[in-house]
Amino acid sequence: MSLTDKLSMLMARPGGDNVQKDDVPWWMRYGGRGLGTVGGMIAIVLGLVNCISIVLLDVGCLISGIWQMLAGFIAIVCEAPCCCFFIDYVQTLSDRMETRPYWNKAALYIGLAIPPFFMCFISMSTWFGSGLIFGTGIIYGMMALGKKGSIEDMRTSAAHLEAGAGLPSSAPRATLVSNEQPVSFTGAPGLPAKH
């Protein structure tokens, strides 16, 4: 496969979104993809900065930097495979991730971003680099939640909740239990009175 064939295959990919993801606004879709790409690049550079902390004999920050560079590379591979066209399997991995639901991507990015915080908590490069990958996971999590209800549906639901009558089965319930009692404080239980 020639270089031009690879480039044309990579450039044709963004139009291949499946029908399931049509309810997500275009700006959120491109925002997640852009933040994942730029955040992955920044995470790789800041992970390298964390690796330099081995001079101070801080092994936790070294491992955190390596993890952060790996997480940044995975984010770039999933979001912008055209940045890694020299690796053969990148396009198949990216296509496989593109067919997964949004919550899978959210779980992947959040799962990749959290461990460096536990290894090197005091480093600002960890906070910023892994924070961008974590933000990408949050955006994909919001996309997984889906579109908000229409204004008419929300007004109808609020009116039914305030009236307390005729709650639809899909509306949230105002009470957790049917036999709840008001909370009152009568004193500490089981302590005898002192004389």
Automatic annotation (TrEMBL):
- One of the GO BP terms on file: endocytosis
Annotated GO molecular function terms are: calcium channel activity
Record's subcellular location: Cytoplasmic vesicle, Secretory vesicle, Synaptic vesicle membrane; Endosome; Presynaptic cell membrane
How is the subunit organization of this protein annotated in UniProt? Homomultimer. Associates with the dally/ magu complex.
Q: What is its main location?
A: membrane
Q: This protein is called what? A: Calcium channel flower
Q: Which SMART domains match?
A: Cg6151-P
Topological category with respect to the lipid bilayer: Multi-pass membrane protein
List, alphabetically, the Pfam families matched.
Cg6151-P
Per the record, its GO cellular-component terms are:
endosome; presynaptic membrane; synaptic vesicle membrane
Per the record, the domain of life is Eukaryota
Bilayer-crossing regions: 35-57, 69-90
Give the similarity note: Belongs to the calcium channel flower family.
What keywords are annotated for this sequence in UniProt? Calcium, Calcium channel, Calcium transport, Cell projection, Cytoplasmic vesicle, Endocytosis, Endosome, Ion channel, Ion transport, Membrane, Transmembrane, Transmembrane helix, Transport
